[in-house]
């Protein structure tokens, strides 16, 4: 492999020239401290004559550093890069920073092992270096703030313009999205809209308003853009999904990571002065970019994470009509089940228009970007919200691969459902209560799941049932008005009826110890062998029958599926164990298991009669 560097390219690039794929050497790298979650790396590169200390890797290249693929002394070509101007906070002077967007490793640094030549620190204004001969490629448009290799803009046909004054010429000062920061002025980006939310409204003591947000991208990066109240309707109607626009004069501010998973440090706010010009079709701007996670890996990812997934829609439920707990707004929900080649399945929740418009009759390939991973009683699911994007049968290689894989499966193929509420594919091995304690299950930052065989020692019958709001999605305790009506303070409504809800806390034990566990409605009814209505009505009519419900499970053995986690109440933190399942032990199957264990441990064969 050649170790020849493109001598003088650092001076040429800094002066505003575009050098096609210059070859440089990485001398050093350092992680930059930042308040943002996204890591960034500063690098020192050399062309053999000069070295540049103000160069950075784009975030998509971080993995090359982390994995060790890009060690010091590596010789590489810069396939795409930008030279952006940033102010020096100490001197107020402008400093040029080289941002590397794409590179190709020519010789690994471990093989090179040393610095090539005797490069000197490049100072702006230093013209002593020879400038390499310009390659015969189109030159980029001059830009005071930034230039980018490969970003020369062709002349465009007149296009619609929104905001500002009319102008029939396409903008010339194009910068890549990765270079956007609050210190630049008079910039324009050329980007594709890859997701767009519906208009949402809000109301608080400071007033009312509405907003919508969209994710836009170019070849370098993605960024979130949001329009509020006075310009919300205008830009929502103007900007269409998958179309390319020139955008300028938007406000740049630090990204709020609470509302976006895009790694860009900044986001845009569209205002009255923002200018948007429709760009004639441009295939150089990429379509939506995914970072797919296999479905079987989701069980190990923390809830509330934002993820991209792709799979075959195997099942589609009917639409459910719900009411939002806080706003009382009518909602429509549809659940679909996706499967993929990791042999896992997961439930996806679609809402409102997405639920109404979805057609799963042909078992399509569904790609989701920005889905929110949720967890309930150990099962994982994905919710599609305003900031998510869903594509049906996208024309991408992964979709075609999945289609061929699924069509070749037999009808008997089984998938592991990680949406099961029993804890997914977690620890299903039956352990003792002592083992759970020794393993410190539930004492860490996440919920732990385990199964145990326990005998019921005691079931309290006091304060185990209450009167709850009759609406299906609300379980809040109601206030008896003593006139035949009941008030739900959460729903702020008065009802003529109620529903009974159960909360049990029995004590269970095995040969190693005892444990109090919590049980809620469905599990409590399964455990007691009666419905909450039966138990509640008995309490009001016949106390003896009511007491019998709680004596019935005593000294019986169940297999419990337990969720263990730390819980804080009244500033006191303690271990809380909740039963997700309570199944009476099958003694025949339990005996077979004991025989298998004896044979395995003793190396003997037990004679069966």
From TrEMBL:
Renumbered to this chain, region (Disordered) spans 118-141
Domain Replication protein A OB, first and last residues per copy: 296-393
The alphabetical list of record keywords is:
DNA replication, DNA-binding, Metal-binding, Nucleus, Zinc, Zinc-finger
Report the GO molecular function annotations: DNA binding; zinc ion binding
Q: Where is the Replication factor A C-terminal domain?
A: 449-594
The residue ranges of the Replication factor-A protein 1 N-terminal domain are 5-107
Q: Which Pfam families does the record match to this protein?
A: Rep-A_N (PF04057), Rep_fac-A_C (PF08646), REPA_OB_2 (PF16900), tRNA_anti-codon (PF01336)
- Gene Ontology cellular component? nucleus
The record's section on PANTHER family has:
OS03G0429900 PROTEIN (PTHR47165)
Name the chain's protein: Replication protein A subunit
